[in-house]
């Protein structure tokens, strides 16, 4: 079975993926910002001891043992955060399974950042899986918990349930019709965060956005999931309405998506930013049934293997900037043909 990021899920024409994250800290240890390297190492050793008893095919990997290309590929899959990679002074590790739908960051901002992932909109199932794993860990290790505030965390925004539910959505039609800013404003007004996946604002290469909850205290896990799901469903509805509007001018839409398809298929070199934008248009064409030459599976592969880290993983060697552009066009031809 292929990894979750190469699969399609519920509402995958708009929803790329879902993630549920739980932040936890251990009793008896200072918060990470005040931990010495020796204490950080003790935290890692304490958690490493229980990995085999958790199940799920999990394995423990120290960050310092991973090469730069592997770290970049994990970043591109959203399994680890930029902050996790950037601070090389801290002692860090991940606990991950072969399917990579479970990835636990150790010593990022907090001792434990438990993450579970899925393609498409699967927030409720992910919540159940995250809580299941969390309870297994909590049976063995003593979490920092306060009866008034809930789970304690380095940042006040993570106190309480410590849960963040997030969904990556693809919104090209809202961008083309000029309605994106209005929809994103509404989402923000409902107490959710919306961030461009490849940069802030509406000029977002790839038209990808991350929607997540802001509040973790004073709400239950089920309420968080229900709130995020409700907002995401409204965004899906708005994007699909915008796509129907674009479909009224079939010639214009076909021209746009097939131009992108043609450049992707025949280009001899391609930058990362150009590729993201072209793939956004091509995915739209595939989802609307205009482009028949590709399917969802190939779109997923194109989205993954054209990213710099996974491109280098695919070819099994380190590639410099210009060579990456040539190899990116090469891997696109391989997948499309």
Structure description:
It contains 13 helices and ten strands. The protein folds into two domains: 4-243, 2-Layer Sandwich (Creatine Kinase, Chain A, domain 2); 250-336, no CATH class. The strands form two sheets. The chain has an eight-stranded antiparallel β-sheet with strand order 2-3-4-5-1-8-10-9, with helices on one face. It has a two-stranded antiparallel ribbon with strand order 6-7. The protein has helices at 37-48, 51-54, 68-76, 82-86, 123-140, 172-176, 180-189, 221-246, 250-266, 272-287, 296-305, 308-315, 321-336; strands at 15-24, 59-62, 93-96, 102-106, 112-119, 145-146, 150-151, 163-170, 192-196, 208-213. With 337 residues, it is an alpha+beta fold. The longest helix has 26 residues, at 221-246. Helix 3 packs across helix 12 (308-315), helix 9 crosses helix 10 (272-287) and helix 12 (308-315) packs across helix 13 (321-336).
Give the topology.
Blueprint: E1 15-24, H1 37-48, H2 51-54, E2 59-62, H3 68-76, H4 82-86, E3 93-96, E4 102-106, E5 112-119, H5 123-140, E6 145-146, E7 150-151, E8 163-170, H6 172-176, H7 180-189, E9 192-196, E10 208-213, H8 221-246, H9 250-266, H10 272-287, H11 296-305, H12 308-315, H13 321-336
Antiparallel strand pairs: 1-5, 1-8, 2-3, 3-4, 4-5, 6-7, 8-10, 9-10
Q: Which features characterize this protein?
A:
10 strands, 46% helix, 2 domains, 337 residues, 8-stranded antiparallel β-sheet, two-stranded antiparallel ribbon, alpha+beta, Creatine Kinase, Chain A, domain 2
